Amino acid sequence: MSQFSAEFRCIAGCAGGYPLEQVIYRCPKCGDLLEVIHDLAALRTRDADGWKQLFGERWRSVEEPYGSGVWGKHEWVAPALEPANIVSMLEGATHLTPVPRFAAELGLGDVRVKQCGISHSGSFKDLGMTVLVSMVKQMIAHGRPIRAIACASTGDTSAALAAYAAAANIPAVVILPRGKISTAQLVQPLAAGALVLAIDTDFDGCMRLVQELADKEGVYLANSMNSLRLEGQKTVAIELVQQRGWRVPDWVIIPGGNLGNVSALGAGFELMLALGLVTKRPRICVAQAQHASPLHASFEAHWAELVPVKAKTTLASAIQIGNPVSFKKAVRALRAFEGVVEIASEAELADAAAHADRDGLFTCPHTGVALAALTRLAARGAITRDDEVVVISTASGLKFADFKVGYHEAKLTDVPAPRYRNVPIELPERYDAVRDALNRGLEA
Predict the structure, then answer these.
(1) CA distance 345 to 349
(2) How far apart, in whole angstroms, are the C-alpha atoms of residue 142 and residue 136?
(3) Which residues of the chain have pLDDT under 50?
């Protein structure tokens, strides 16, 4: 048994803790969300340099499961999880990619993109799902009667759940809004054998249904209101600091939909701070699509209570959420990290994604929202050349080929004049025509 431990506790401070193997999503006393709290005294039995050395030895190791960016931090994530029950696809340990041309054109210095989409199912959701599915596997092994794992999804969550549940031989149920996710996202859970239910509603309607199923039908809830997910996602913060030689950037820009990732990264930074691995917090910006921006409305009203909205259609479909479950957690994190919230129009997010692609990326529209937010912050001088910035990229652009094609063919409805459009030059089979096109292109 590990000397380290963790438990669920209420974010509102109600007394009492609950085992991570207990089927519980909200505080039974006040109904608020839960969070995972670690035994810091036990973790402090190894000093900061000791943790840095251990994590360095495990980084991209060939020893399973420590090659995973999540399970390389096992003691900080789910210490009571038995290694035999870990379901891993070597998720995480993703590249921190510099984008010097993009940064220079914004008048900025060191800007890097944390490529969380370079993971097994193509999104950062793998980081949380490896923890949740592994814990469910252990719960079933210990005799808990769980029929299946279920989630509501706008695409990426369903892909991650289906893949990890299939690897664990646990049934998966996916509830998604019919006709509102990309074909590439829809086919992933289908390919992995999940039971996929396409509902005539939006994400918020799917979320209501899956919560009712979890309450009444013996399925385990896999959405980010389940704090086990956030334990895996918090390793993004730890990982990016480790990749920077244990230096904290000045700013972290995070796309925000259901808002679990904001509090997850905040928790990662807070744990490093509490254990002495770092000495400061970054500032955090949450970036929302203008068509689905209830957190931004709260921020503009000096952190007013959440007013759910009916999210409008946005190219950033995975964050098209009008009633974010993790709103309170996100606000708490943003207050602690001198946080701000920015929005991006459809044209801004599409242009920002294409702009960063000129540095060799292939960005998803949600990453485009974060890049557009950075563009706005730079334009008004909130972020300057002296600031070191990390933008969180949440998914692979390969899941959104239609978005990319539509941009460069100028067929996106809300992007009438794509600034970075690039099209092939059609030519006859003649050397002089090819030569002249080459010269014109290189001289442009």
Answers:
(1) 6
(2) 10
(3) 1
